[in-house]
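Morning. Coffee machine broken again, so started the prediction first thing and wrote up yesterday's gels while waiting. Chain of 87 residues, entered below exactly as on the submission form.
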Amino acid sequence: MLAPKAFLDALSGHASRMFNGETPLPRNEFETQFKALLQSGFSKLDLVSREEFDSQMVVLTRTRARLEALEAKMAEMEVQLAGQVKQ
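Came back before lunch.
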């Protein structure tokens, strides 16, 4: 995984070379190369897609709800057990 600072430094270096070349690139050529540069840089980072992030958030939310329900049930059972022990 590439550190964010190193990624930004590499990105700015490549962009600088594209801008400061001997012959300026046409706009569409520049856009194509810049997109390729970004995709290459992003592939070196540990990123997930928005869809994967959203699906994991759903799983996490569901898991938290189940955990809270189990904790509440366990607390209720502990109260019942404490009442039985006193008798």
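The chain has two domains: 1-47, 48-87. Going to sketch it on the whiteboard this afternoon.
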